[in-house]
Amino acid sequence: xxxxxxxxxxxxxxxxxxxxxxxxxxxxxxxxxxxxxxxxxxxxxxxxxxxxxxxxxxxxxxxxxxxxxxxxxxxxxxxxxxxxxxxxxxxxxxxxxxxxxxxxxxxxxxxxxxxxxxxxxxxxxxxxxxxxxxxxxxxxxxxxxxxxxxxxxxxxxxxxxxxxxxxxxxxxxxxxxxxxxxxxxxxxxxxxxxxxxxxxxxxxxxxxxxxxxxxxxxxxxxxxxxxxxxxxxxxxxxxx
Length: 240
What we know:
Elements: E1 2-5, E2 16-19, E3 32-38, E4 44-51, E5 68-70, E6 78-80, E7 91-93, E8 100-108, E9 114-117, E10 125-126, H1 132-137, E11 140-143, E12 155-157, E13 169-177, E14 184-194, E15 201-203, E16 206-207, E17 211-213, E18 227-230, H2 232-239
């Protein structure tokens, strides 16, 4: 890469000209010290680095007075800070001295938690279900931004309902506190008591619940009755 900057009155020299896979001089090259700083604490969260010190690498050339672009590393739990909160991947800057110090500010990510119904199939409590709370919890899925399971932290209200009579429908409210933001996510389900159709026998020891269908969570088929594969319990039968 050749980078030339006009430092004299000779108009024959272009202001900036670059050519890949070529050899030549870099005029007015500078070194840039990059610091990675937590915007809230104003402390460095990563060791600083220096770029522009290896002119043999085209991607490591920085020129005084020229608009430059730098893509900072991705740091777990952080995102690049911007005044308007916009998500960006790179930073533009114009260095005016050498060595030039570029402060890259990060802000902590707020953990986004999710609380969703596990399946679009109607969730049913069996008559005389012995483990009501455990069964109610199995109807939902809660995760943090990293995908960690938070289902055990979900509060269920009520967590113990009458399952002695078929046909009764209970409204169950699930809630999950986001400890980062202090906000609570809610999910409401209407859960009937009766025969779970997923236990309906299909023959040869197979039941409806051994398969997943177009209406299940994460399945995008328009036909909600279409068999799309084995469920977890179906896979266990295949292994056996």
